[in-house]
Design goal:
Layout: H1 2-105
Length: 106
């Protein structure tokens, strides 16, 4: 009877040990799935943030290029006007010298 009782206790202990092991494995699997889901969500958010920053950088670069082009066009326009004014100034100097010469001869 003692040996049968020990056998029963041993069987119960083994059964409880198996259930405990299954429970631990199930809990670990659940934790792993939850961790995997969190990692996937964090990765997705990270990719979205990177994409948003890249879009902002592209928009800023396009804006900078447009501003640079506008400034280059304005610079070209100002240089053209300056050239015209310089030619006009030279013509006025020539006319003044001619008038000075005419006045000097009177």
């Amino acid at each position: 009877e003692r040996s049968q009782r020990l056998s029963t206790i041993s069987a119960e202990y083994t059964s409880q040990e198996v259930r405990l092991q299954e429970s631990v494995e199930s809990g670990l699997g659940s934790c792993q799935r939850e961790a995997d889901q969190r990692i996937a969500a964090d990765s997705r958010r990270g990719r979205e943030e990177v994409a948003a920053v890249q879009e902002e950088e592209a928009t800023a670069a396009a804006s900078w290029r447009a501003q640079r082009l506008a400034l280059e066009e304005q610079t070209t326009d100002v240089r053209g006007k300056l050239g015209t004014w310089e030619m006009e100034g030279a013509r006025l100097d020539k006319d003044r010298r001619w008038l000075d010469a005419q006045l000097a001869s009177v």
